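Entry 14. Ran structure prediction on the chain below.
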Amino acid sequence: MAKHAQQRGRDSSGLLFHRADSYHIHRADYPIGKLLPEAGTFDAGVVMGHSRLITNGLGDNQPVLREDICVLHNGIIVNHEAIWEQIGKVRELQVDTEVISAIAAAHLEQGGAVQDIPARVLDLCRGVVACALALPRLGKLCLFSNNGSLYVGTKNEATYFSSESYPLSQLGCEGITQVLEHAVVLDIPVVSTGFVVVDQEQRTTDLIPAFTHCAAEEKLLVFPQHNLRRCTKCVLPETMPYIRFNDEGICNYCLNYRSRNKAKPKEELFALVEPYRRAHGNDCIVPFSGGRDSCYGLHLIVKELKMKPLTYTYDWGMVTDLGRRNISRMSAEMGVENIIVAADITQKRENIKKNLRAWLKSPHLGMISILTAGDKHFFRYVETIKKQTGISLNLWGINPLEVTHFKAGFLGIPPDFEEERVYQSGAMKQIRYQGLRFGAMLQSPGYFNSSLWDTISGEYYRSFAQKTDYFHVFDYWTWEEGAVDACLKEYDWELAPDTNTTWRIGDGTAAFYNYIYYTVAGFTEHDTFRSNQIREGQITREEAMTLVEDENRPRYTNIKWYLDAVGLDFSETIGVVNNIPRLS
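Output, structure tokens:
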């Protein structure tokens, strides 16, 4: 169980166990696989553990202990700051989980019953709450969730629980049930003494860097007004790779454009998914980044398609807290289980750092994509989740207008105007792409580092590995930005503080690479996206020009987070970018 739990994150771990008439809490900022043998829990009658990726409160690891109430919690409570005043308690820690203990304590102080604690917690909290709440002085353990990311089973007269059903089935548990509509209350040994708490710290840097605004740094970000010739129909500029204009000033991207946003009859999708529907349990997997399109896609799958999905999130170290909070909001509001697969975030960020250092020594617009190579294992772990859950159908919410030919174009690959999907496989295309990338890497040997295998294998799973039972929601629903934003507003979807756009705001990398593209080439992926909207007849050229003028502005907060997360100096990095010769 501990080994499988590390799939969800290994940045920190914690244990609660009963031994020798007392309860012990051991917490560490390293994986549970290392903490378990150190704690020596094998003769304990009660053991509960947690292995997590970093979310809120790096300094306050789980299990969270407050007022002799101990909590293990998966999820993020997005309104925890507002709850404290409601319950008349004073916050002591950073971590959002503390408020669960405080709610339980306040409830008991007011004469409430133990069995009513779960309902009280879920009534107050917004965001995912999948929780094990231990009350040793009362001899009770409450298990409850608002999204189903909690399962209980039995074996040899013992009770086991886990965030997912898979490890329980692997153990041979019987009667595995999802904890969603009704809480489970179990008896545990009663003790009157306090907890024995042991904390182990090894990490010297924070995986969640505290944001500190520096006016001098922000002033380093430039926003030049490029004087560029642009297409008279869309907004693509003359610096777009392989662009050509006809006598009327219309670019070849417009002339060769085929609509990507014409929905097929929904009845076709209903017919496709019908064989996958299940009378009980989840019937499809939804890859879920927390971005606007995957969130809107999830809404359509639950509310319109009437499927019972579980969502899958791959955290590779560049999902921001904002993105995680939106994942938590949507999963809780729709009561949808969320399975997280987390990479070794420290290692992933070290890979980014190595490649970014290599890039800064020889800046090349065609090599910027190597900074996001680490997220391509998203496609690999879909297959893992399919095997673990026994669910084959996966439904994707990829925006059909998010086509960025220029990223490969700057490497020397002309646009394929026949391409029909955002992500396309194809052996020859990939061989050519990797060959050109290899040539660019030779200009800066720092690219040949320990991250190379991670990059290559990620590209394989994205472009070569066979995909089955794989459908796109927006093949059957027309993507319209107004409808998307209006829908997400109903879920209190969180916006970014440093931009007006809703696109890629939970992605820690986007603001940085778009800053490079705009500074050097005078456009970003916002220009290509808005141009596709023009071609689809969704907005006018004048509207698009106004939007990109705003959206291309530097996002200091996000860029600062990114460079702090990978451990590079802001001033030095931005200084290199600002000195790259411009294409205009």
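Residues 345-361 form the longest helix (17 residues). Will compare against last week's run tomorrow.
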